[in-house]
TrEMBL record:
Residues 557-693 form the Flavodoxin-like domain. It comes from the Eukaryota. This is NADPH--hemoprotein reductase. It comes from Tritrichomonas foetus. Belongs to the NARF family. The lineage of its organism: Eukaryota, Metamonada, Parabasalia, Tritrichomonadida, Tritrichomonadidae.
Length: 1103
């Protein structure tokens, strides 16, 4: 379905479902991006693709879907400024890293530069240079999200000792030269100087990619040019790796037939991909015996060069220097394997060869006429398709056909395994007379891992694995592509080579006369003793301390979390700590691992309308859809939520039920924890932890401080006078405050009129987030008590996987305590533990008494009368924690959600909010309401919540039933202003408002009656819950006016909008609307419910 959008004043056609970025790209419109890559899920980390939509909201083009008639701006000064500021957080070097992507962005925005906690790293295959890194996160996401390896998840990973398999996918997606193949050009140049006889071999997929480095279309066949360039460099011989592929097929097919005959070592896995071999040896050493012992094609050619080839040409092995031109950086790792050392001298990637062509001053366009040398230079079509996922299997099947049937393959085709560009598994049963071979092809290491860990792999006889999705055509050493999908052009060319060779009667390895001659003159026969000695190898586990620990953890209980705000993540880490395991998002778990590890502890929060968080939905869906028997699994579920909402801990309850339905056994009963209580449910959580440890036979848990922030001193003091904004927030100006309740009324409600930045707009019914601050004098007192320097500047390093963070990368101590640590909120148990770690004996005793889980009432009483500032001042006398510990343990200020209480049609440059004062316990007042009420507060940080931005203007022609309580009236005022100042027509509208006192709320009630007088609303009903004459709740008022409600509700186009407190009032409203359909519409209960469900009902709930 087509839609139309306006970009910088011009109309463009787009497709429904496209993101804004995709629309831009489809029309060739440039917009800067760094973290985005079409092969990765969008994340909006870099913030460079920021645009303004519909004149107001800033969004990220990579994540925001385009919609019909959307107006998109990329060129206004404030959009460019936001993009520049985003880029500033990425760069921190005097010169930006040289790369086409970066140069294009710098040219577009002209910025500065990142904080890089990661250190220089180097393996046989990959080199990391932190001075070039811009922290875009692409490498982390492709390793974790696409490959499911996660070798870069740690803040400062060391590739040599972790799960890294040297595939180089991180290089292929890096926008700078931070990640590169470990260079191998220098040894080749030394060999040239030493007059060595250099023998180069050329892999199938580089001949269809190298030309791209010189402007050729993707997939252009340039074999002759590569050979000609090699000759000009002084390389003596150029051979074809496809010849080695033919030999590999002969040996591998022979090996497979032998294993089938003996029924041993099955399934047999291919071993020509060294990254896959690394994965097996590091993560699944139990499968080393299943790997084919046949060497990879280029290693076979390498061995033959120094034996068969050298003998034929009467060359000394010591005079020969062998080089492989490969699409894969892990080939560099392969040649350094202990079992293969000496077989090969150097491996270069397609990119390195392109650099050599340029360094030698060779004119690419003039190259022509290069030919392979004849010995080890001829190949079949089957050898060509080794470069594509599924090609090894197809080539093996072609040769096996002749072995098992004794007949030539003729016109028979085996194309079942073609077309694998993503992470997929393709399977087929291939019949050779009476023999049936079950075969599988895994395109991508993630697909292989899923197959292995499901244990379904055991039903196959032969399994091909290529670690890079799509195979070598998309390898880590190939020229970088804008998207992996474009590699299909390389695959097509390889299939064309295969087709041509078939026409030349070279369909299988058996048709290659040079291979036949090799066995006749040198190797005797396939699988001979000599062939095994030269062309086969063996595998063994690669052990490091880190990998050993990872494997140990895989036998420990599972601790999985589903988290939306970071609370479940933090609590899961605590549980993982005392169980001696590592917690992880539930989406990273497989059902097989659940059975293997036998014990699982889940901590899951509830989001939205009783939904599971995103990072556990995949696991839940897989579990729901499976028939797996979990009768041997023990489990415990801890649910997190707020009792203020109807769906309190629903996600946790559902998970508990699903586990029970699959026959899993409870360790301890499900526990719902209310995180909206004074202590955020922490006392109940600790009691649950104690019960869990008792049930598991573990000692009582020792819960410490989870360090999620690391602060390092910074000499850049520019932020002292020019503080960075809270992440993703804009600065706005309060222009007016007006009371909506009687003066000195116990619970004030007031209205703010706020000046927005130029060019920003909003829609009626929108939601704003306000980022409040502590009183400056309170922050000053706390800093003084702690003995910190208020002007000390720190760099902030965050464990982003665990924390919803708003602190920018550089802050001063004064800014940290004024703007980000919640000094007016109640202290939590983690903060008390941070002080207990450094306290003297007297302090330890006091804090231990407060933290005693058997004294919950005492702790809650303490919380009623104290805020965090007072708590810090009280316990700092016993010892002061490290700043990292304090920032990690102290609750942070979180944005407050407010409905917009105005319509843009009245005054487009201003926005209004309705705020009520709040009090907690005996002494504490609400942070945000107190902040906004303060006359000294003039500049505030705000942002529109685009994802919850209902456009009430679209509902204006239909009947409306409006219900509000307390400060929820803000949303309703927005609608009423729209109806008052906008052109009609309007549907009929009635309003029910619930407040405490008619007298106390008189100014606000008068304003609502004024809306009625002006025709914006037809009827206004006010219910006052604390009036002595007529004590009434808003539900009571609605029941009194059921006939008025039905007058509107009988129209299916009628909208019901509620704005106010959550809780049972929402259930009551639903019951009332169903009742009136029964009473006035003569509907049965089910019909009345269905009639309700068919209406447009909008809930705006505020705590």
């Amino acid at each position: 379905m087509s839609i139309h959008v306006t970009i910088n004043g011009q109309s463009y056609k787009a497709e429904q479902g496209q993101t804004i970025l995709q629309v831009f790209q489809s029309h060739g419109i440039f917009i800067p991006t760094l973290c985005h890559h079409p092969d990765l899920p969008p994340c909006g980390k870099c913030g460079l693709c920021v645009v303004r939509i519909d004149g107001g909201t800033f969004v990220y083009a990579c994540m925001q879907p385009a919609r019909n008639k959307m107006i998109i701006d990329t060129k206004s000064a404030d959009v460019i400024e936001k993009a520049k500021k985003s880029l500033e957080s990425f760069f921190n070097v005097s010169q930006p890293p040289p790369s086409p992507e970066i140069e294009e962005i710098v040219k577009y925005l002209n910025p500065k530069n990142p904080v890089r906690p990661r250190e220089h790293d180097r393996t046989n295959a990959i080199t990391f240079d932190p001075t070039e890194c811009i922290n875009c996160g692409r490498c982390i996401r492709i390793c974790s999200d696409i490959l499911n390896i996660g070798a870069l998840n740690e803040p400062n990973p060391r590739m040599r000792i972790n799960e890294c398999i040297s595939c180089g996918m991180c290089i292929s997606i890096c926008p700078t030269n931070s990640l590169q193949e470990t260079p191998s050009i220098a040894p080749i140049l030394r060999a040239l100087v030493q007059n060595k006889i250099i023998v180069l071999q050329l892999a199938p997929s580089v001949r269809v990619s190298v030309g791209e480095l010189f402007g050729e279309p993707i997939g252009t066949l340039c074999t002759e040019k590569i050979i000609a360039a090699a000759r000009q460099m002084g390389i003596s011989y150029v051979l074809d790796t496809q010849y080695g592929a033919d030999v590999t097929i002969v040996e591998e097919a022979t090996e497979l037939v032998e294993r089938l005959k003996n029924k041993k070592g099955l399934p047999m896995f291919t071993s020509c991909c060294p990254s896959w071999v690394n994965f097996v040896e590091r993560s699944h050493p139990e499968l080393t015996g299943n790997l084919s012992t046949t060497k990879s094609p280029h290693m076979i050619v390498g061995k033959l060069i120094k034996t068969y080839f050298a003998d034929r040409l009467r060359l000394k092995e010591t005079d020969i220097f062998t080089v492989s031109l490969m699409p894969c950086v892990s080939k560099k790792d392969e040649v350094k394997r202990m079992q293969l050392i000496g077989d090969f001298d150097a491996v270069i990637t397609a990119r390195e060869f392109g650099k050599m062509v340029k360094d030698f001053g060779i004119e690419w366009t003039s190259l022509k006429g290069g030919e392979f040398d004849h010995i080890l230079g001829n190949s079949s079509g089957a050898g060509a398709i080794f470069g594509v996922s599924g090609g090894v299997t197809e080539a093996t099947v072609r040769y096996a056909h002749e072995i098992l049937t004794g007949k030539k393959i003729g016109e028979i085709e085996y194309h079942q395994f073609r077309g694998n560009l993503g992470s997929v598994v393709k399977t087929a049963d291939i019949s050779f007379g009476d023999t049936v071979i079950k075969m599988a092809v895994c395109s991508g290491i993630s697909a292989a891992r899923d197959l292995i860990e499901s244990e379904n792999y055991k039903k196959y006889h032969f399994i091909e694995v290529m670690s890079c999705p799509g195979g070598c055509i998309a390898g880590g050493g190939q020229p970088k592509l804008p998207s992996r999908e474009l590699a299909i052009n390389r695959a097509k060319t390889l299939y064309d080579i295969d087709k041509n060779q078939i026409q030349n009667k070279l369909k299988t390895a058996a048709d290659n006369t040079e291979v036949t001659a090799l066995y006749k003159l040198f190797l005797e026969k396939p699988g001979s003793h000599k062939a095994h000695n030269l062309l086969h190898t063996h595998y063994e586990p690669q052990e490091t301390a880190m990998l050993a620990n990872i494997k140990r953890l895989q036998t420990q209980p599972i601790v999985g979390f589903g988290s939306s705000t970071g609370t479940a993540t933090r609590l899961a880490r605590i549980v993982g700590g005392f169980i001696k395991t590592v917690s992880g998002a539930m989406n990273s778990l497989t059902l097989t691992s659940l059975i293997k590890r036998k014990t699982a502890i889940f901590i899951v929060s509830t989001t939205g309308d009783g939904e599971f968080p995103t990072n556990c939905k995949k696991f839940i869906e897989n579990l729901r859809e499976s028939n797996i028997d979990l009768s041997e699994v023990r489990y415990a579920v801890c649910g997190l939520g707020s009792r203020a909402y109807n769906q309190f801990c629903l996600a946790g309850k559902q998970l508990d039920l699903i586990m029970e339905e699959h026959h899993a056994k409870q360790i301890i009963p499900f526990i719902p924890i209310d995180t909206s209580t004074e202590d955020r449910g922490e006392t109940l959580f600790e009691r649950w932890c104690l019960d869990l440890c008792t049930a598991l036979g573990l000692p009582p848990p020792r819960i410490g401080v989870n360090l999620m922030y690391r602060l390092t001193p910074d000499n850049d003091d520019s932020v002292i006078n020019n503080p960075l904004r809270p992440l993703k927030f804009e600065k706005m100006t309060i222009k007016n405050r007006s009371l909506l309740t009687a003066k000195n009324y116990m619970k004030e409600i007031f209205k703010l009129d706020i000046k927005m930045p130029a060019g920003m707009s909003y829609k009626p019914g929108g939601i704003f987030l306000i980022f409040p601050q502590n009183p400056p004098e309170m922050a000053k007192e706390v800093i003084q008590v702690l003995g910190y320097d208020p002007n000390q500047v720190f760099q902030i390093h965050v464990d982003a996987a665990s924390v919803v963070n708003f602190i920018p990368e550089r802050v001063s101590i004064e800014q940290l305590f004024t703007m980000y640590l919640d000094l007016k909120g109640p202290p939590n148990r983690s903060l008390l533990r941070a002080f207990m770690r450094v306290a003297n004996n007297e302090g330890i005793e006091k804090i231990q008494n407060l933290l005693d889980i058997n004294n919950e009432n005492g702790f809650n009483e303490y919380l009623k009368d104290i805020d965090i500032a007072t708590c810090i001042k009280q316990f700092a006398q016993y010892g002061v924690p490290q700043i990292d510990s304090l920032v990690s343990s102290c609750p942070h200020i979180i944005p407050r959600k407010y409905s917009i209480a105005s319509a843009p049609i009245k005054n487009r440059g201003f926005i209004s909010l309705v705020v009520s004062t709040l009090q907690f316990g005996n002494n504490r007042v609400g942070l945000c309401s107190d902040y906004l009420r303060n006359e000294k507060t003039s500049k505030i940080y705000m942002r529109i919540m685009e994802d919850e931005d209902e456009d009430f203007s679209e509902l204006k022609e239909n009947p409306m039933i409006l219900v509000a309580t307390g400060r929820g009236i803000g949303s309703i005022i927005s609608i009423l202003e729209l109806r008052q100042y906008d052109d009609g027509p309007f549907g009929k509208c009635i309003l029910f408002y619930g407040c405490q006192s008619g007298e106390g709320y008189k100014p606000l009630i008068d304003e609502l009656q004024e809306f009625k007088k002006n025709g914006a609303v037809d009827e206004v009903y006010v219910a006052c819950s604390r009036d002595t004459e007529k004590k009434q709740y808003v539900q009571d008022a609605m029941r009194e006016q059921q006939d008025k409600l039905w007058e509107l509700w009988q129209d299916p186009q009628c909208s019901l909008i509620y704005s106010g407190f959550p809780g049972t009032i929402c259930d009551d409203i639903i019951s009332i609307m169903i009742e009136i359909a029964e009473t006035f519409g003569d509907a049965a209960v089910d019909e009345a419910r269905e009639f309700y469900d068919n209406h447009n009902v909008i809930w705006r709930r505020f705590d």
